[in-house]
Amino acid sequence: MFEFTRVRACSALVALVAVALAPSAWADVLLPDLPETGRATDSDRADARAAYEDATEAYGAGKLDDALEAAERAWTALPNASTALIRATILGDLKRDRDAFEAYLQAADLSPAPEETALIDSGLAKHGPRVSPAMGWATVRSTPSGADAILDGYEFRTPRTVGVSAGKHELELVADGFSPIKVTITARSGRATASTTRLVPSARPVEAPSDPPDRGEEAFEGEDPPPPPKLRHQRTQIRPYLNLGFPGKAKITLTDSFLETASGDSDLNLSYGFGLYLDIPMRSVFALGVELGFGTWTTKFHSDSDLGPNFNVDIGFVPRFRVPIKDVAEIYLSIPVGLTIGVDKTVGLDDNEKTTNVGPGVYLGLYLGGKVYVTQSLGIFLEGGWTAHFWIFATDPTTQWTTRHGAIRTGVAILF
Fold first, then answer.
1. How many angstroms separate the Cα of 80 from the Cα of each of 45, 49, 87, 170, 357?
2. Which of 71, 66, 94 is nearest to 83 (CA)?
């Protein structure tokens, strides 16, 4: 008898553990608690703004744990769509997908501004499929609002945004003075579902329910909610740089007034330069820059003495394909291309005198580089690659130059 009782007790314990570990209803519906709002004091709003700014600064510097701690303080002091949204953004970057998804759901029900709504929808679509089970979200509304809703056993009042697993869900709406109604919601992972139901008055007239109080906390004292912070690679940059060109090759062709021509390869000595370009982010993996550069260089033709110094002014576009590394660095490929003006000092074929020529041309480069952000508004970069120039000097003697050589550039990035 004792053995039988012990076996039954063990079986019951195993059953309880199995029930506790088995997927339950909460796995199919996610309904985060909404905070009490409308009671914030001036001190609460000041604390929330200070904490929000701390979170923004820490997030921009890549210090995600510090950013989350500050965002939690802002949310506690003033729970609204803005503070919920920055929490959700940081939780997502920390790969806490379920927590991020819940925070986005809370932001959706706290009267977000239109630009915040777009960010909330994007966040829900991103993190919903990463939750187990994969989820979408449903916005449940009724006419009139304030109806009692029961979704797969979870109770709430309309309107409300709810996380739901992919598949069919039963929704029942009940309100005093209206007939109960049941509808079916079909949810898809990472997608929004809208359910708006018009309730039909019942035969027995009753007092109409009042609309629920606004769940959205007031914004920061008459101001628009601050937008989520931009990452550093998303900001416009001015990038002054120094350029060092390695020895390379040049081809020169000289043609005098008697069509007497001399051409051949010459050695291109070390070259130096500096420049500035404006870097405008277009996408997370692409930026477009405008470049202005200056350079000086000399050549050695056969066994002659150095020819030069020669000068060039370049202006062109710099498409840049990049891979951001969180918010602290990036690697990229730049392809500068544009127009150039060359100033060439060469030797005339007729009188062996040095002649200065000025002429237009084109240039093309290819650079692989890396950039590290050292503060919120400053980065340093180093890039190396290859560049080529071609000039035509329409003077006497007519001169054509083609130069090609390796080069490195280094400088700073000033962020705006």
1. 11, 12, 11, 30, 68
2. 71
